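Example for tutorial group B:
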Protein backbone atom coordinates (compact mmCIF):
# COMPACT_ATOMS: atom_id res chain seq x y z
CA UNK A 1 0.00 0.00 0.00
CA UNK A 2 1.17 3.50 -0.76
CA UNK A 3 0.39 6.80 0.96
CA UNK A 4 -1.18 9.69 -0.93
CA UNK A 5 1.29 12.27 -2.29
CA UNK A 6 2.88 14.59 0.28
CA UNK A 7 5.73 17.03 0.70
CA UNK A 8 8.50 16.48 3.22
CA UNK A 9 10.20 19.10 5.38
CA UNK A 10 12.99 18.62 7.87
CA UNK A 11 13.25 21.67 10.15
CA UNK A 12 16.44 22.48 12.02
CA UNK A 13 14.70 23.35 15.29
CA UNK A 14 11.30 23.49 16.98
CA UNK A 15 10.74 27.13 16.03
CA UNK A 16 11.06 26.28 12.33
CA UNK A 17 8.79 23.26 12.77
CA UNK A 18 6.12 25.46 14.33
CA UNK A 19 6.34 27.93 11.45
CA UNK A 20 5.97 25.14 8.92
CA UNK A 21 2.92 23.72 10.71
CA UNK A 22 1.35 27.16 11.03
CA UNK A 23 1.79 27.87 7.31
CA UNK A 24 -0.32 24.90 6.15
CA UNK A 25 -3.37 23.64 8.02
CA UNK A 26 -2.95 20.19 6.45
CA UNK A 27 0.66 19.80 7.58
CA UNK A 28 1.43 17.12 10.16
CA UNK A 29 4.36 16.63 12.52
CA UNK A 30 6.26 13.37 12.02
CA UNK A 31 8.21 11.91 14.93
CA UNK A 32 8.80 8.14 14.85
CA UNK A 33 6.16 7.51 12.21
CA UNK A 34 5.05 4.18 13.69
CA UNK A 35 1.40 5.25 13.82
CA UNK A 36 1.12 8.05 11.29
CA UNK A 37 2.70 6.27 8.31
CA UNK A 38 0.46 3.18 8.50
CA UNK A 39 -2.57 5.48 8.69
CA UNK A 40 -1.33 7.25 5.57
CA UNK A 41 -0.84 3.93 3.79
CA UNK A 42 -4.47 3.05 4.55
CA UNK A 43 -5.52 6.55 3.39
CA UNK A 44 -6.88 7.32 6.86
CA UNK A 45 -4.59 10.35 7.06
CA UNK A 46 -3.74 12.67 4.16
CA UNK A 47 -1.29 15.34 5.32
CA UNK A 48 -0.06 17.74 2.66
CA UNK A 49 3.33 18.11 4.34
CA UNK A 50 5.19 15.93 6.81
CA UNK A 51 7.27 18.07 9.16
CA UNK A 52 9.95 15.72 10.44
CA UNK A 53 10.82 16.53 14.08
CA UNK A 54 12.13 13.06 14.88
CA UNK A 55 15.80 14.00 14.87
CA UNK A 56 15.77 17.37 16.62
CA UNK A 57 18.39 17.25 19.43
CA UNK A 58 16.36 19.60 21.62
CA UNK A 59 13.59 16.98 21.81
CA UNK A 60 15.86 14.07 22.73
CA UNK A 61 16.78 14.90 26.34
CA UNK A 62 15.91 12.63 29.24
CA UNK A 63 16.74 14.14 32.63
CA UNK A 64 15.66 14.80 36.19
CA UNK A 65 14.80 18.30 37.42
CA UNK A 66 14.38 18.14 41.21
CA UNK A 67 11.20 16.09 41.70
CA UNK A 68 10.24 15.91 38.03
CA UNK A 69 11.25 13.42 35.35
CA UNK A 70 11.57 15.34 32.08
CA UNK A 71 11.28 13.33 28.87
CA UNK A 72 11.85 15.05 25.56
CA UNK A 73 9.07 14.33 23.10
CA UNK A 74 11.57 12.84 20.66
CA UNK A 75 12.99 10.30 23.12
CA UNK A 76 12.62 6.85 21.60
CA UNK A 77 10.34 4.52 23.50
CA UNK A 78 13.07 1.89 23.73
CA UNK A 79 15.45 4.49 25.19
CA UNK A 80 12.96 5.32 27.93
CA UNK A 81 12.14 1.66 28.50
CA UNK A 82 15.78 0.75 29.18
CA UNK A 83 16.70 3.94 31.04
CA UNK A 84 18.02 3.47 34.58
CA UNK A 85 16.68 6.94 35.42
CA UNK A 86 13.17 5.94 34.36
CA UNK A 87 13.37 2.67 36.30
CA UNK A 88 14.42 4.48 39.46
CA UNK A 89 12.05 7.43 39.31
CA UNK A 90 9.00 6.19 37.40
CA UNK A 91 8.76 2.39 37.21
CA UNK A 92 5.18 2.49 35.91
CA UNK A 93 6.40 4.12 32.71
CA UNK A 94 8.85 1.28 32.13
CA UNK A 95 6.11 -1.27 32.75
CA UNK A 96 3.81 0.41 30.25
CA UNK A 97 6.50 0.72 27.60
CA UNK A 98 7.18 -3.02 27.61
CA UNK A 99 3.65 -3.52 26.29
CA UNK A 100 3.95 -1.06 23.38
CA UNK A 101 4.01 -2.99 20.10
CA UNK A 102 7.22 -4.89 19.47
CA UNK A 103 10.90 -4.14 20.01
CA UNK A 104 11.28 -2.77 16.47
CA UNK A 105 8.37 -0.37 16.93
CA UNK A 106 9.68 0.91 20.26
CA UNK A 107 13.10 1.46 18.70
CA UNK A 108 11.57 3.98 16.27
CA UNK A 109 8.48 5.25 18.08
CA UNK A 110 8.78 8.26 20.37
CA UNK A 111 7.22 9.03 23.73
CA UNK A 112 5.77 12.33 22.55
CA UNK A 113 4.54 10.86 19.29
CA UNK A 114 2.47 8.25 21.10
CA UNK A 115 0.86 10.88 23.32
CA UNK A 116 0.14 13.23 20.42
CA UNK A 117 -1.40 10.37 18.42
CA UNK A 118 -3.93 9.78 21.23
CA UNK A 119 -4.86 6.21 20.40
CA UNK A 120 -7.58 5.10 22.87
CA UNK A 121 -5.66 1.84 23.40
CA UNK A 122 -2.25 3.50 23.90
CA UNK A 123 -0.35 2.36 26.96
CA UNK A 124 1.59 5.61 27.28
CA UNK A 125 -1.56 7.74 27.27
CA UNK A 126 -2.90 5.73 30.21
CA UNK A 127 0.40 5.82 32.08
CA UNK A 128 0.79 9.58 31.64
CA UNK A 129 -2.71 10.18 32.97
CA UNK A 130 -2.24 7.85 35.93
CA UNK A 131 1.06 9.53 36.79
CA UNK A 132 -0.52 13.00 36.70
CA UNK A 133 1.98 14.02 34.03
CA UNK A 134 1.98 17.25 32.05
CA UNK A 135 3.04 17.91 28.49
CA UNK A 136 4.73 21.07 27.28
CA UNK A 137 3.75 22.23 23.81
CA UNK A 138 5.20 24.98 21.65
CA UNK A 139 3.18 26.88 19.09
CA UNK A 140 3.18 30.12 17.14
CA UNK A 141 2.03 31.94 20.30
CA UNK A 142 4.65 30.44 22.58
CA UNK A 143 4.73 27.61 25.11
CA UNK A 144 2.01 26.23 27.33
CA UNK A 145 1.55 23.27 29.63
CA UNK A 146 -1.35 20.81 29.44
CA UNK A 147 -2.16 18.19 32.10
CA UNK A 148 -2.26 14.74 30.54
CA UNK A 149 -5.83 14.37 31.82
CA UNK A 150 -6.83 17.28 29.54
CA UNK A 151 -4.78 16.28 26.51
CA UNK A 152 -6.91 13.45 25.12
CA UNK A 153 -10.33 14.62 23.94
CA UNK A 154 -11.48 11.99 21.39
CA UNK A 155 -10.05 9.06 19.41
CA UNK A 156 -6.82 10.31 17.78
CA UNK A 157 -7.65 13.88 18.81
CA UNK A 158 -5.90 16.06 21.40
CA UNK A 159 -6.24 19.57 22.73
CA UNK A 160 -3.15 20.68 20.77
CA UNK A 161 -3.65 23.37 18.16
CA UNK A 162 -2.67 22.60 14.57
CA UNK A 163 0.50 24.72 14.84
CA UNK A 164 1.67 23.25 18.16
CA UNK A 165 4.40 20.69 18.71
CA UNK A 166 4.56 18.55 21.82
CA UNK A 167 8.08 19.16 23.08
CA UNK A 168 8.42 17.45 26.45
CA UNK A 169 6.65 15.34 29.04
CA UNK A 170 6.98 16.20 32.73
CA UNK A 171 6.24 13.44 35.23
CA UNK A 172 6.14 14.15 38.99
CA UNK A 173 8.44 11.86 40.96
CA UNK A 174 6.55 10.53 43.98
CA UNK A 175 6.69 7.67 46.42
CA UNK A 176 4.03 5.37 45.01
CA UNK A 177 3.18 1.77 44.36
CA UNK A 178 2.14 1.00 40.84
CA UNK A 179 0.90 -1.75 38.58
CA UNK A 180 0.17 -2.14 34.90
CA UNK A 181 -1.69 -4.87 33.01
CA UNK A 182 -3.42 -5.34 29.69
CA UNK A 183 -5.28 -8.12 27.94
CA UNK A 184 -4.50 -8.55 24.24
CA UNK A 185 -4.86 -11.40 21.72
CA UNK A 186 -1.09 -11.71 21.35
CA UNK A 187 1.96 -9.96 22.71
CA UNK A 188 2.39 -6.71 20.79
CA UNK A 189 -1.24 -6.51 19.66
CA UNK A 190 -3.47 -3.61 20.63
CA UNK A 191 -5.06 -4.21 24.00
CA UNK A 192 -8.66 -5.30 24.29
CA UNK A 193 -8.52 -3.52 27.64
CA UNK A 194 -5.90 -2.51 30.17
CA UNK A 195 -5.23 -0.37 33.22
CA UNK A 196 -2.49 1.72 34.79
CA UNK A 197 -2.67 1.84 38.59
CA UNK A 198 -0.92 4.24 40.96
CA UNK A 199 -1.41 4.29 44.74
CA UNK A 200 0.24 7.09 46.67
CA UNK A 201 -1.61 9.83 48.58
CA UNK A 202 -4.52 9.03 46.28
CA UNK A 203 -5.67 6.15 44.11
CA UNK A 204 -5.49 6.60 40.35
CA UNK A 205 -6.77 3.90 38.01
CA UNK A 206 -6.78 4.69 34.30
CA UNK A 207 -8.31 2.29 31.82
CA UNK A 208 -7.51 2.10 28.12
CA UNK A 209 -9.00 0.28 25.16
CA UNK A 210 -12.47 0.74 26.66
CA UNK A 211 -13.74 3.92 25.02
CA UNK A 212 -12.89 6.91 22.85
CA UNK A 213 -10.06 7.98 25.16
CA UNK A 214 -8.17 6.64 28.13
CA UNK A 215 -10.27 7.26 31.23
CA UNK A 216 -10.13 7.37 35.00
CA UNK A 217 -12.16 4.72 36.83
CA UNK A 218 -13.57 6.69 39.79
CA UNK A 219 -15.94 4.03 41.11
CA UNK A 220 -13.11 1.53 41.41
CA UNK A 221 -10.81 4.18 42.87
CA UNK A 222 -13.36 5.00 45.58
CA UNK A 223 -13.59 1.34 46.54
CA UNK A 224 -9.84 1.28 47.22
CA UNK A 225 -9.36 4.67 48.84
CA UNK A 226 -7.93 4.31 52.34
CA UNK A 227 -8.15 0.53 52.39
CA UNK A 228 -5.69 -2.34 52.37
CA UNK A 229 -5.41 -4.23 49.10
CA UNK A 230 -6.95 -7.47 50.24
CA UNK A 231 -8.16 -9.99 47.67
CA UNK A 232 -11.83 -9.24 48.27
CA UNK A 233 -11.27 -5.50 47.93
CA UNK A 234 -9.34 -6.00 44.69
CA UNK A 235 -12.13 -8.14 43.24
CA UNK A 236 -14.72 -5.52 44.21
CA UNK A 237 -12.74 -2.72 42.57
CA UNK A 238 -12.22 -4.79 39.42
CA UNK A 239 -15.93 -5.50 39.12
CA UNK A 240 -16.80 -1.84 39.68
CA UNK A 241 -14.35 -0.83 36.99
CA UNK A 242 -15.95 -3.22 34.51
CA UNK A 243 -19.52 -2.24 35.42
CA UNK A 244 -18.84 1.50 35.16
CA UNK A 245 -17.59 1.48 31.56
CA UNK A 246 -19.35 1.47 28.20
CA UNK A 247 -16.83 -0.10 25.80
CA UNK A 248 -17.27 0.02 22.03
CA UNK A 249 -18.55 -2.86 19.94
CA UNK A 250 -16.18 -3.40 17.05
CA UNK A 251 -14.49 -6.15 15.06
CA UNK A 252 -11.89 -6.72 17.78
CA UNK A 253 -14.20 -7.35 20.74
CA UNK A 254 -17.75 -6.83 21.90
CA UNK A 255 -18.53 -4.76 25.03
CA UNK A 256 -18.90 -7.80 27.29
CA UNK A 257 -15.48 -9.09 26.25
CA UNK A 258 -13.84 -5.73 26.89
CA UNK A 259 -15.48 -5.45 30.32
CA UNK A 260 -14.25 -8.92 31.22
CA UNK A 261 -10.76 -8.01 29.99
CA UNK A 262 -10.78 -4.79 32.02
CA UNK A 263 -11.86 -6.67 35.14
CA UNK A 264 -8.99 -9.12 34.70
CA UNK A 265 -6.49 -6.34 33.99
CA UNK A 266 -7.51 -4.40 37.12
CA UNK A 267 -7.13 -7.52 39.22
CA UNK A 268 -3.65 -8.18 37.83
CA UNK A 269 -2.47 -4.58 38.19
CA UNK A 270 -3.73 -4.27 41.77
CA UNK A 271 -2.09 -7.56 42.75
CA UNK A 272 1.18 -6.10 41.45
CA UNK A 273 0.58 -3.04 43.63
CA UNK A 274 -0.23 -5.20 46.66
CA UNK A 275 3.02 -7.15 46.21
CA UNK A 276 5.18 -4.08 45.57
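The residue assignment follows.
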Amino acid sequence: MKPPPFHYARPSDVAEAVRLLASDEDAKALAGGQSLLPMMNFRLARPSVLVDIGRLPELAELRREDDVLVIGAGVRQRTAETSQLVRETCPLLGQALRHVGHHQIRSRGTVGGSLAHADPAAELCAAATALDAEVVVTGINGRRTIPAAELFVAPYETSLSADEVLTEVRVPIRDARCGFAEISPRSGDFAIAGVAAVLSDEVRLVGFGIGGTVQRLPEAEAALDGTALEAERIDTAAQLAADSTAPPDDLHADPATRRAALRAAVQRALKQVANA
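The mean pLDDT is 95. Compare this with the pattern of hydrophobic and polar residues in the output above.
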